[in-house]
Amino acid sequence: MLLDGSSPDMMAAQSKILFQLNKYYNERVQTRQGNIVKTIREVCKVVQDVLKEVEVQEPRFISSLNEVNSRFEGLEVVSPTEFEVVLYLNQMGVFNFVDDGSIPGCAVLKLSDGRKRSMSLWVEFITASGYLSARKIRSRFQTLVAQAVDKCSYRDTVKMVADTTEVKLRIKERYVVQITPAFRCGGIWPRSAAHWPIPHIPWPNPNLVAEVKTEGFDLLSKESIYMKDKQSAAEGDAWVMSFKYAEDRLLYGGCRRKCLSILKTLHDRHLDVPGAPVINYHLKTLLLYECEKHPREMEWDDTCLGDRINGILLQLISCLQNRKCPHYFLPPVDLFKGKSASAMDNAAKQAWRILRELLTNPKSLEKL
């Protein structure tokens, strides 16, 4: 036995799987990433042009899609052909953030007491009861984008996606980009995530927790499956909470990001089944739970990469079989809500197949 309790056989098996995973990373994963970078350049040129037109018509919608250190800020890769651009709006100041849990994963912005509507930049989107309506802002933005698409210099290659209240562009018939109006809430932390971090677990360390909470979250104007359950008009006024920056911050260090990149590549090749029961965001969520299960930094050394990937695939299978995948920061939000049972069973079968291959024959990665 070695000092850490592992046997030479275990070490040999670990180094064999690590060799295969590194090969997979250098060949498959980096090819995927390179292709996505090219697509992002192509897509962002079009989106920036459309948003420039929008700004001419309505200066309150200022494009925040900027390139910084060859990365586009505010752009999220949903899949290799699907992207989301978050458009940060200004002047949330006169509103209070109210997060009472009545719609899981959502919150409202209410005019502060003593503040007049006229003090807000968004005066015509404030409802009679004093809420800033996410749906009204999105509806206005959608009209502006539709007009901009007709005027912009890429009008031959870009179309609005019909039959949705979301603002979605189809570019070159190949890519879909959703543009989501949002407010950045830095320096505050929502009540519905107050239970985090779980006490008595050494990860994340207190400094990282403080950093994440200062980073805050975003409020997005988009559909939520939890709003569909509620019929009252007020539900459409609510904003969806997003913790993208907090999640990304937690995944620094060790092999966490490498692990996620490998899982995303496996997903695109094997888990992208009809009904889309599993998306990359589910894998990111399960990776965060895996960080809690393995809180010591040494458990995220490259030598443990195989174990962590297997652990996340096991978690995924369990979630699919139990029909539930809780949001990392907002556990009452089930990320599988609305997914069909047959699609989840199909995805679980595929995940089992990948896991079995990884456990019994690491060389099979060459075929995966």
In short:
The chain has 368 residues and is of the alpha+beta class.
Report on the architecture of this protein.
Belongs to the mab-21 family. InterPro entries: Mab-21-like_nuc_Trfase, Mab-21_HhH/H2TH-like, MAB21L/cGLR. It holds the Pfam family Mab-21_C. This is Protein mab-21-like 2. With 368 residues, the chain is α+β, with helices and mostly antiparallel strands. Helix content is 43%, strand content 14%. The chain has nine helices and eleven strands. The strands form two sheets. Strands 3, 4, 5, 6, 7, 8, 9, 10 and 11 form a nine-stranded mixed beta sheet that branches. β1 and β2 form a beta hairpin. It starts with 7 loop residues before the first helix and ends in an 8-residue tail after the last helix. The model has no long low-confidence stretch (mean pLDDT 92).
Largest sheet descriptor? 9 strands, mixed
* Rg estimate, integer Å: 22 Å
Shape designation: globular
Helix content: 40-55%
Which range does the strand content fall in?
5-15%
The number of distinct β-strands equals 11
Low-confidence blocks of residues:
none
Distance between the termini: 33 Å
Average residue-wise pLDDT = 92
SSE arrangement, N to C: HEEEEEEHEEEHEHEHHHHH
Helix count, DSSP H or I runs of 4 or more residues: 9
Please identify the structural class as seen in this structure: alpha+beta
